[in-house]
Structure formats: C-alpha cells, structure tokens
C-alpha cells in the first residue's frame, strides 16, 4: 500500500514539476486586507493540450524513425545461421566404407600389440 502511495505522490510531483516548467499554470500568492493568505492558480488548458499533442507527435516520429532504421539494418545484413545447400550422398555408404566395412559387415576389432602377453 505504501508503494502505491509513493508512486502516486511521485506522479503528482512529476506532473507538477513538468507543468511548472512548461508554463501550463501559474500560481500567485498574496495577502487579503484581513491578513489571510490568498492563493490564486491559473491553468492554461490550451497550452497543456497543444504541448501534449506535440509531444505525442514527436514520440510517434521517433518510434517511426527507429523502426525504419531497424528495417533498413535487417535488409542490409544477411540472415544468421542459414542452412547451406542440400547435398545428396554420393554412392552407397555401405560400400564406400561408412560404419561398416566394404562388404557391409562390421570391421574386426583391433589386435593387441605383440609382446604384451595378453
């Protein structure tokens, strides 16, 4: 719950700071003849709408240009890990000497060296 309140507070302060910087509103302080503090705020709604529309357009252009750059880069670079051309085996593997000998029978086990006694 505290995290949500902190997030809400950060959003309010952020919006307030951005609005103050962009000139969306002005705040005037004064004193009444009674001695009370008088607070007056003026919000320029047209400026807020105009600035947010311009910001949305700029973000859209930025995203569009990045997407175009990515498409151009994808067209220019060759694909990675593409399989090579398919080749067909030449001849019969049993007769060429694949896993089995030339007659299609398994090869004989190797003989131990002479003089080992085994």
Describe the structure.
It is built from three helices and two strands; from the N terminus they run H-E-E-H-H. The model has no long low-confidence stretch (mean pLDDT 81). The chain has a two-stranded antiparallel ribbon. The protein is elongated and about 120 Å long. Among the domains are: 1-43, no CATH class; 44-76. The longest helix has 32 residues, at 45-76. It has 118 residues and is mostly helical. Strand 1 and strand 2 (37-43) form a beta hairpin.
Q: How would you summarize the topology of this molecule?
A:
Elements: H1 2-22, E1 25-31, E2 37-43, H2 45-76, H3 93-96
Antiparallel strand pairs: 1-2
Give short descriptive properties of this protein.
single chain; 118 residues; mainly alpha; two-stranded antiparallel sheet; 3 helices; 2 strands; elongated
Summarize the structure.
This protein is mainly α and 118 residues long. The chain contains three helices and two strands; from the N terminus they run αββαα.
Strand content: 5-15%
The global form is: elongated
Strand order in the sheet with the most strands: 1-2
How many strands, which pairing sense, and closed or not: the largest β-sheet?
2 strands, antiparallel
Average pLDDT works out at: 81
Helix content range of the residues, please?
40-55%
User: Tally the helices: what do you get?
Assistant: 3
Give the low-confidence spans: none
Gyration radius, to the nearest Å?
40 Å
Whole-Å distance between the termini?
A: 81 Å
Number of strands: 2
Query: Structural class of the helix and strand makeup?
Result: mainly alpha
Reading the helices and strands in chain order gives HEEHH
């Amino acid at each position: 719950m505290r995290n949500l309140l902190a997030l809400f507070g950060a959003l309010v302060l952020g919006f307030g700071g951005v609005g103050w910087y962009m000139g969306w509103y002005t705040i005037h302080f004064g004193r009444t003849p009674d001695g009370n503090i008088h607070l007056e705020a003026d919000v320029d709604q047209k400026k807020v709408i105009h600035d947010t529309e311009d910001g949305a357009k700029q973000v859209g252009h930025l995203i569009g240009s990045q997407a175009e750059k990515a498409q151009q880069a994808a067209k220019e670079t060759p694909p990675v890990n593409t399989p090579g051309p398919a080749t067909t085996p030449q001849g019969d593997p049993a007769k060429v000497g694949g896993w089995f000998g030339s007659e299609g029978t398994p090869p004989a086990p190797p003989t131990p060296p002479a003089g080992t006694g085994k």
